[in-house]
Amino acid sequence: MTPQSPLTQSPLIIALDYPSLDAALCMADQLDPARCRVKVGKELFTRSGPAVLEALHGRGFEVFLDLKFHDIPNTVAGAVQAAAEQGVWMVNVHAGGGRKMMQAAADRLHANGLQTHLIAVTVLTSMGAEDLNELGITTSPAQHVERLARLAQDSGMEGVVCSAQEAKALSACCGKGFLKVTPGIRPSFAAANDQARIMSPRAAMEAGSTHLVIGRPVTEAPDPMEALTAIEAELAEH
Ligand code: C5P
Q1: Ligand 1: distance of its center to the CA of 4 in Å?
Q2: 125 lines ligand 1 (CB under 6 A)
Q3: What angle do CA 7, 9, 11 make, to 5 degrees?
Q4: What's the pLDDT at 2?
Q5: How high does pLDDT run on average in the chain?
Q6: Ligand 1 pocket test: which of 213, 216, 220 has the largest number of ligand atoms within 8 Å of its C-beta?
Q7: What is the pLDDT of residue 6?
Q8: pLDDT at 208
């Protein structure tokens, strides 16, 4: 399945945070590719390699490859090209890699006619003001997120991964069309788990999120499609 033929209009991206190909596919087989996309992260990809992408594409899923590349421009451009050539729907880099790195990655996709969505991570939500301070960044995390989002947009990124709490401010500074892919989402029926700052799917969309990354509320539900249906119902409420 190529990224040029979108399979779903759903904003939902289900995080397949599993340590093996078999476990990830066992979950994917319970989901409907017409009603969600899936996210493959560092552990699953490092263990299973491109085979997981092939298997998910073969099942009709669009895949967000969440590897957060951060390296010299040429290296990141090559990695992003490799991801796109494997047909992933979305891939990401760290905005902290700077303008040249992000531009090189975006240019490489365009030069090769690759349609994969390229977005950036601004500040990891695990980083607080003190952590930033240790890195010599004295502005607040919110200000730094905004600065990196503007830089990402200016460098050809289509959007950012951000918390839903940041989505409103980022819509104001970067526009509604700038993608805001937000984790930390908890539907009304789900436990918070280890997420500290959570938002409901509907509140996150209203705040300006364009896509919602949801893991355990779906993957640990007794019936994952039932959980997905409940989330769709929450999104549809008026
Ligand atoms: O299970 P849960 O819904 O908390 O999973 C959220 C997913 O989003 C996980 O894959 C997690 O690594 C990812 N994520 C996050 N917070 C961020 C960035 C990514 O929870 N700031």
Answers
A1: 26
A2: yes
A3: 120
A4: 47
A5: 95
A6: 213
A7: 60
A8: 97
Collapsing DSSP states into helix, strand and coil, what is residue 110?
Answer: helix
Q: What is the pLDDT of residue 86?
A: 98
Nearest CA to ligand 1 atom 3: 215
Which phi and psi angles does 60 have, rounded to 5°? 95, 10
- What pairs with residue 106 in β-bridges? none
pLDDT of 52 strictly over 90: yes
Using a 10 angstrom Cβ sphere, with 0-12 exposed, 13-18 middle and 19 or more buried, the burial of residue 191 is exposed
The 3-state DSSP composition of the chain as helix, strand, coil percent (nearest 5) reads 45, 15, 40
Q: Are 16 and 62 in contact (CB under 8 A)?
A: no
What spacing in Å lies between the alpha carbon of 112 and ligand 1's midpoint?
31
Give residue 123 CA to ligand 1 midpoint distance, Å: 14
* Ligand 1 touching residue 199 (CB < 6 A): no
Model pLDDT for residues 140-163, shown as the tens digit of each residue: 999 999 999 999 999 999 999 999
Report the distance separating Cα 162 and Cα 115, nearest Å.
22
Residue burial 206-231, b: 16+ Cβ < 10 Å; e: rest: ebbbbbbbbbbbbbebeebeebbebb
Q: Within its chain, how far is the Cα of 1 from the centroid?
A: 19
